[in-house]
Structures are given as C-alpha cells and as structure tokens.
Design goal:
Elements (H helix, E strand, L loop, with lengths): L1 H28 L1 H6 L4 H7 L7 E3 L2 E8 L6 E5 L2 H8 L10 H5 L1 H4 L7 H10 L7 E4 L3 H11 L4 E6 L6 E7 L5 H4 L3 H13 L22 H10 L8 E3 L3 E3 L6 E3 L12 E3 H6 L3 H11 L1 H11 L23 H7 L10 H12 L3 E3 L4 E5 L5 E3 L5 E4 L3 H17 L13 E7 L8 E10 L2 E9 L11 H17 L2
Parallel strand pairs: 1-4
Antiparallel strand pairs: 1-2, 2-3, 4-12, 5-6, 5-17, 7-10, 8-9, 11-14, 12-13, 15-16, 16-17
Helix pairs in contact: 8-18, 11-13, 11-14, 13-15
Length: about 475
C-alpha cells in the first residue's frame, strides 16, 4: 500500500512540477511575445481602456485616440489616413495592428519599460492612464508630393537623410483608410478588411518597405559598379569591351543595350563611366561574369540585401540569389534581372551610403518619444551600420551618377543649381509583361541631404512603353525639390 502511495505521490509531484514549469515559462518567458502578438485581442481590448498616445508629423497628430460612449472607451482616429497609412498602419480590436501602431505599441499604450515610473505616478496622482506620443521624422510636404505624384498607380517612394537616418518620405500606392479598420463594429471591420485583402491592387501592401518585391533592373548596376571598384576590377575610366550584342555564356541567348543593337557610345571600347551614364547592359553583364556571383552577392549583402531592416517596422529583405549561379545567370544579375528583387527602402539605402561617403546609417521613423507630460523618453538616435564601401568608391560612384543626371539617361532628375546624382532602371518582369520603373539618387543643398528611391509597378500604367527616366526620375526629382524646399 505504502509503495502505491509513493508512486501516486511521485506522479502528482511530477504533474505539479510540469504545470508549474509550463505556467512559469508562459508567464515570464513567452509573456512579451504573447503581449506583442497582433492576434492577442485580449491585450488589444484591454489597451482601449487607456488613451493611446498620438502619432505626430511635425507636431500635428496623424493618429490619435478619441473618447467615445462605447465599452471600448476610446476610438482610434486617423487624419489623412491614406496619405500616412504606410507609416501609422492601423490599430484594430479584431484584426490586430500594423505599422507604427504595432512596432511602437508598448510606447503608444503606456506599457513600455521606459514609462514605468510615469504609470506608477499616475496611480498616486489619479491621472488618467495614457500612452506616449511618437513624433516621426516625416516631412509632411514631401510626403504629400510623393503621394500625389504616385496618383493611385501601384508603386512607392522612400526618402531619407543619409547623414542622420531620418526617414522623410514613405509613400505607398494604392493606399487605404485605416479608419475603416479602427471602428468598433466588428462585422463591418471584418468586411472592410476582407475587401482590402481581396483587392487585386493590394492596398494593404506597404510597397516602400515590403509587398511583392520588384526586380531592380538597372539601378542594381550601382551594386555591380561598387563591386568592380572595390575589387580593383575597373576604375571609372577603365576601357571595357563594347559589342553591339553579346551571347550569354553557355547559352544561345543574346542580350543588348537599351538602345537595341547599338554600342555603348560610338567607339569599340567604352568605360564604366559611360556604361553607367547611358545604362548599358552588356558592359555590366560582362563585369558581373568577371566578378563572379560570390563577389556580387558579398557587395549586395554589404548594402543590405538578404537582410531585414527595422525602421522600426520590419521590412521585407531585398534579395540576391543565395545559391551558386552559372555565368549566364550571373550576367543577368549584372543589370538587376534574373532572380534579383528589391524594395525602395533598400535602393535608397544604397544611394544614401554613396552620398554619405560609404557609411550607411540606419533609417528610422522615430524623431522622439514623449510622455503625456511632454517628458522626452527617447530622442533622435543615429545608428551607423558601418562603412560598406570606401570613400574613394563612393566619390567615384557619385561622380558617375551625377553624370547620368547631367548628361545621361537620368536627365529628368535635373534640378537647376543642384548637383543631383541618380540612376534609373527599367526592369523586365517576363515576356509581354509591363516593366517595373525605377529611380534612385541623392542631392544636398545648404546642409540638407536627401536620398530617394522610386518604383512604379505595371509600367506606371504604360505597360512596356514607360521608362525609369520618363516617369520614376520625374517623381524622384519632385520629391528631392520638396525636401530641399525648392
């Protein structure tokens, strides 16, 4: 009998320890993850009892909580919802949260560790609980200009200050109104969400940092040029072969320069400078083969490919193939084709590193975080990601990119009195399919710097007739002018 009692006791002790260990793990180890999970509607519902902090642009709320007469107590309101949706995201009781609403939820809801003493003081003073305010780095005029120029066409614009990392523009089109997902009628919210989810134009995509990525086309030539310069394979004025057509290694397929069947310039030889200025495919395909896919991948990953960037929202990694490539595939990546894809965020960071002498600064949307009593609990944070290229390479690329704008295929980015550096791209998506149109570049005036990237999907509405210079460079130019206040 005593033996049976001992066995039962041991089993019960084991069950108790298992339950104790499981509950301890959930409460202390998994707790932050469970609280942050967008599917945790209990946490969301509880957070409606707190006046959620506002999200600000230039001191003006673009998202704030408004008292109502329902059991939720507060309703989230978005001003200029479509304009700022890629930044604010939405905050919903039954569909979770996105954008800054998700990434900065702890601060906005007043539950961040940095707000512990503020919350504690409120218990003793009787103050109504409230979250912190998030002041963003967005330039409201430039954001409006970018959104207006996208004009509802699928695409995005991303711009930031390469010296500080401050994000000035993050516009995505088509957009959506977050107010349609913030109301307290669950059935209507779910209907609105499903309508957005099933929309073939994918308005819920934040194309500036995520979504279905586009091939970068010729803007990727900046990566290949940087690799060639860094590895001593070429200088800006080294002579390169200049055929009218070129057969991909181990293949019968031929490639051509954009001016089909013509050389890159008039001579039998060309240079890296001329090839970038006129965006010639053949010299870059040949350079890519000489470099090999390992060196190109190494350079691409130094710039940020195959890695996510938190701004603080998590971005979709831009992609350079991680498996070994044959020479034909490598040649195609030389002008941003084959299986290469990118976000405007990534391409702007490449231009930004070049503009900043080779040093890459982490982009961020957060200018500062303020308690309800206006105490600053987080100020501007400039974080260096290191030197991705040498200052000499950055100088050479800057010179070549300025030549592309001043007297090349990025001419629509010209601004009188400003040295604009830029590169266009017109990327193929498949036989008969519309092109993806790109521009990336940078400029500086009176100490203000800006690096920008623009992508237009579906040929900007022009199918295979649209070009990077014709549409994307024009948008880039106007955004740069808005930031520089020209």
């Amino acid at each position: 009998m005593s033996r049976n009692i001992r066995v039962v006791g041991i089993v019960m002790l084991a069950m108790f320890l298992a339950l104790f260990g499981s509950s301890t793990y959930i409460q202390f180890v998994q707790e932050p993850q469970l609280v942050a999970d967008g599917r945790n509607t209990r946490t969301l519902l509880e957070s409606y009892e707190v006046q959620r902090g506002p999200i600000l642009v230039d001191g003006t709320p673009i998202a704030y909580s408004q008292a109502d007469d329902t059991s939720y107590m507060f309703q989230r309101v978005y001003t200029d919802g479509e304009l700022y949706a890629p930044i604010t995201g939405y905050y919903s009781a039954n569909q979770g949260a996105t954008g800054l609403e998700e990434a900065m939820n702890a601060e906005l809801s007043g539950t961040a560790d940095s707000q512990f003493f503020t919350s504690l003081r409120a218990l003793f003073t009787g103050e109504e609980p409230a979250g912190a305010a998030i002041e963003t780095t967005i330039n409201p005029n430039a954001q409006q200009v970018a959104f207006d120029l996208l004009d509802g066409r699928p695409g995005a614009v991303f711009a930031y200050d390469p010296a500080t990392g401050a994000i000035l523009v993050s516009a995505s089109s088509p957009s959506f109104d977050p107010n349609s997902l913030a109301m307290h009628d669950d059935a209507e919210v779910i209907t609105n969400y499903n309508d957005l989810l099933n929309d073939p134009l994918n308005p819920l995509y934040n194309r500036a940092i995520a979504g279905n990525l586009n091939p970068p086309g010729s803007v990727f030539k900046l990566v290949v040029a940087a690799a060639a310069l860094e590895n001593g394979l070429a200088t800006a004025d080294s002579e390169l072969d200049n055929p009218e057509e070129w057969t991909l290694p181990g293949s019968t397929s031929k490639i051509y320069n954009p001016n089909h069947g013509q050389k890159c310039g008039s001579d039998d030889k060309t240079t890296l400078r001329i090839a970038l200025q006129y965006s010639c495919n053949i010299p870059f395909a040949q350079l890519a083969v000489e470099l090999g896919d390992d060196k190109i991948r190494e350079m691409a990953e130094a710039f940020g490919f195959n890695s996510s960037v938190d701004i603080p929202m998590e971005s979709t990694p831009s992609y350079y193939p991680t498996d070994p490539l044959d020479d034909a595939q490598t040649a195609l990546t030389g002008f941003g084709q084959y299986d290469v894809s990118a976000t405007p965020l990534q391409m702007a960071m490449i231009s930004g590193a070049i503009a900043n002498g080779g040093e890459m600064i982490q982009p961020t949307l957060i200018e500062q975080v303020l308690t309800p009593s206006l105490q600053v609990i987080q100020g501007p944070q400039v974080e260096s990601l290191g030197n991705v290229i040498s200052s000499a390479t950055a100088t050479a690329l800057t010179d070549m990119m300025q030549g592309s704008v001043a007297d090349g295929v990025a001419s629509n980015a010209q601004i009188a009195g400003v040295d604009v550096a830029g590169k266009t791209g017109t990327a193929e998506n498949g036989e008969g399919e519309p092109y993806s149109l790109w521009f990336t570049g940078f400029a500086e005036l009176d100490g203000q710097q800006v690096a920008v990237a623009v992508v237009l999907e579906d040929g900007g509405g022009m199918g295979q007739s649209g070009t990077g210079n014709g549409l994307a460079a024009t948008i880039g130019q106007q955004v740069i002018k808005a930031v520089l206040e020209l």
